[in-house]
Each structure stands twice: as structure tokens, then as C-alpha cells.
Amino acid sequence: MKKKIAVLSATLILMAGAVSASGLNGDYKGNPIVKVTSNGKPLETGEVPAMIYDGNTLVPISLLRQLEASVTWDGDAYQVDVKLPEPPATADKSEVTKQQSDVKKLKQYAAAAELYLKLQTLGESLDSARTTIRLTADTMNAGKAEASSLITNAKTSYYKANETLTNLTKETTDSVYDDFIKHGIDSSQIRSILTDYQESARHYQLALDYLDKYIRDKKASDYNEYLNNNGKADNSAKSAREKSSKGYAEWSKNVHNY
């Protein structure tokens, strides 16, 4: 902008110094034509171009309009009024800082909603594993031979859910929790959910182990241990799943309303 103003301030007559490049851009009535540019871009001239006249550089006032200047000709007074363009307003630093802060906060809100959704989905996976484990036990009690193959399906279902839990635990690092806290997100709730799921997974593993032994040895004590651990696993998973659902509803709403 300073360069533009400098050009405008010297619009009508610019001293050319010792100019001897006559004919470089052609002549106008015997006067060497001067090519005028703004930031390297040539300006369009009308019938009368800029030229060297009597050792001075003359620039038509029509070129000023191309530089966003307001030019008014007073024919009675033989006077030209030139108004230079106002420099662009400087952005309010405090407003820019606030906008940047808002963007960061919104990203954290979205990250929290996404994490709660993953935790909710994990709960559904554990619930699916629970159903398969229970079906295996029911089949065994009914004296059906397919119980041995169903226990394999139950283990596969559980291992898949447990792998998801392990990955989520690794992804949710201390820095993730710190960022949540900085933006007003209760990270203790997320920690509590993961702890509940970990406790649930531990008891599901024990339930599977005892159920596997029960299928093999037919001992009532193993079946009782299966029931005990399966019940504890269900309770922990249910608690975590409900918290996850509420968390997802809350933070997805916060993102929508931000």
C-alpha cells in the first residue's frame, strides 16, 4: 500500500532524470512513450499514453482510477481532485486471537464427541460378546454338542472387542486429556468409562476361561465362577456404555450449538 500511495502522490509529473530511451515503447507526437505498471502489471492507457515531455514524465490522470483512486475533474476551475484509497483496516489482534481460540475449542468438542461415540460402540461390541458367551453356556446346559464350537465364536467376539479397548486406551494419552481439560471438557468421565470397560473385559476373560473349563470338565464350581464373573462383566460394561451414550449426546449437541 505504501508503494501504491507513493505512486499516486507523484501522479501528474514524475521527474525522469536523464532519460534517453526515446522510442523504446514507441513515440507519441515525438515524445517517448512510458509504460506504467502497478506491482508489475501494466496499466491500460487511453488515447494519450504516459510520456517523456521536456525532461519530465507525464502520466494521464485516467491511470489513477486503475489504482483505485477517486479522480474528479472540475472543468470550470481547471482543477483535478484526487482522493487516495484508504489503507485496509488492520485486523483486531484480540478478535483474531479469539477466533483462533474458538476454532481450537470447537475441534476439541468434536474430538470429545467422536471419542464418546467410539466408547459407545465399544460397549455394543462387548454386549455382542456377552450374548455369544451366554448362548454358549445355554447350549452347554441343554446338552448340545455344538457348545464346543460356540465357545470359539465367543472368544473371537471377545478378543475383537478387547482389541478395540486396547487401541482406545493407547490413543487416549495424557496430552489428549490435557487438551480436553484446557477447553472445559471433563476428562475424568472418560477415564472412568475406560476403567469400567477394562474391568468388564477382565471379568469377561475370566468368564470365558471358567466356561471353557466347565465345557471340558463339567464341574459345577467352574460354572458358578463363570456366572459370577459374567455378572460382574455385564454390570461394568452397562455402566460404561450408559456413560458413553450420555457423553456422546452431550458433546455432539455442544458441537451443533457452538
From TrEMBL:
Residues 38-84 form the Copper amine oxidase-like N-terminal domain. Residues 229-238 have a biased composition (Polar residues). Transmembrane segments: none annotated. Keywords: Signal. It comes from the Bacteria. Residues 229-248 are annotated as: Disordered. This is Copper amine oxidase-like N-terminal domain-containing protein. It comes from Paenibacillus tianmuensis. The lineage of its organism: Bacteria, Bacillati, Bacillota, Bacilli, Bacillales.
